[in-house]
Amino acid sequence: MTTSITGLQDEPNRHGVGARLASPHSDTRAAQWADKLWAAVRAGDEYSAADVVTDALQAGLEPEAVLLDVIGAVQHRVGLEWAANRMSVAEEHVATAINDRVIATLSPHRPTAGRGRVTVACVDQEWHSLPARLVAETLRLRGWEVDYLGAQVPTAHLIGHVHRTAPAAVCLSSSLPTRLPMAHTAITACQAAGTPVMAGGLAFGVDGRYARLLGVDAWAPEARAAADKLAAGPLLPQPSAAHQTTDDLPHLADQEYTMVAQSRTRLVRDTFQLLEQNFPAMKDYSDGQRERTAEDLAHILDFLAAALYVDSADVFTDFLGWTAEVLTARGVPARSLAPGLDLLEEQLRDFPRARDLIHAGRAALGSCS
């Protein structure tokens, strides 16, 4: 592998990195304004972007539609353009920053009678904050008092905030499935504090399957659905009786997730060294190419560990399928992933679930070629 997939740290895409689930109640009038905002964002013109948002509001588009069907739609397009190699990481960062700043144009008036207080936060180590902000701003527009904590909130700090503010609910956002173990910790801790949790973001699956697996009190596919669920009535927290992780996820008793996660650094190092030994062409790699190859191996292991945690091959195969598409768009054949998988399987010969996941991943790559 000579083209890095490390953009997945920053970019939305279909395997769960900030991808946007469309609302069935989107405003069709927003499309023309989304096109105009896209042109401004693509040009890196923050002033024109702000003008587009202001003009859309003055033309009668509801603030919520501007937020979700204009700004949110444009951000989704940014991710698609990056994945297709039509936008660099730097250009994506500029576009995301502009979208984040123009949201301020939609600041709601203080409600005369608030609905209550809600905390919105990203799971620890989750950097993709814009989906969470879209939820936070939607709730504000609908009259909630919102504490928006932003990206990568450590669970201990989240719980401290919950104890101080006593919100009606915590809305947890995560885009990367690799954050599911941290999400599970945060969900359990909030519920132990007596606060219900609503989860959202593609880390939890397009149908919320991993949210339910981790015991959330509610799941919402997108911002409007989250606001509707909260408006329908108070969420009731799960019973907070003391329990272990294996009570929720009995498959973890085999310790495969723990062993793979704890061995991540060694596995990346050893697999990289074996690649050097088995593929002489790597000796001609530049320092940058070698660094990107090691980073890609680390991502593969992270998604393998996440798949072990929730016992789902889809977490791993979807990631590899998306990675193959990204690499192909950059002129790197999908088969370049296979040698690393082969070497990882050899090192994980004593881990049957991990081997099964690698087999499934190899099959998924075969269908991509």
Structure, explained:
- This protein has helices spanning 30-42, 46-58, 63-83, 89-102, 130-141, 155-165, 180-192, 209-213, 223-231, 245-248, 256-262, 264-278, 287-310, 313-329, 338-347, 352-368, and strands at residues 117-122, 145-150, 169-173, 197-200, 218-219.
- It contains 16 helices and five strands.
- The protein is an alpha/beta fold and 369 residues long.
- Helix content is 56%, strand content 6%.
- β3, α7 (180-192) and β4 form a beta-alpha-beta unit.
- The longest helix is centred in the C-terminal third of the chain and has 24 residues, at 287-310.
- It has a five-stranded parallel sheet, with helices on both faces.
- The two termini are 15 Å apart.
- Mean pLDDT is 88; it is low at 2-21.
- The chain is globular, with a radius of gyration of 21 Å.
Produce the secondary structure layout.
Elements: H1 30-42, H2 46-58, H3 63-83, H4 89-102, E1 117-122, H5 130-141, E2 145-150, H6 155-165, E3 169-173, H7 180-192, E4 197-200, H8 209-213, E5 218-219, H9 223-231, H10 245-248, H11 256-262, H12 264-278, H13 287-310, H14 313-329, H15 338-347, H16 352-368
Helix pairs in contact: 1-2, 1-3, 2-4, 3-4, 3-5, 5-9, 6-7, 11-13, 12-13, 12-15, 13-14, 13-16, 14-16, 15-16
The pLDDT mean sits at 88
Question: Can you tell me the overall shape?
Answer: globular
Oligomer: single chain
Radius of gyration: 21 Å
Strand element count: 5
Largest sheet: 5 strands, parallel
Structural class: alpha/beta
Report strand order across the widest sheet: 2-1-3-4-5
Short description:
With 369 residues, the chain is of the alpha/beta class. 56% of the residues lie in helices and 6% in strands.
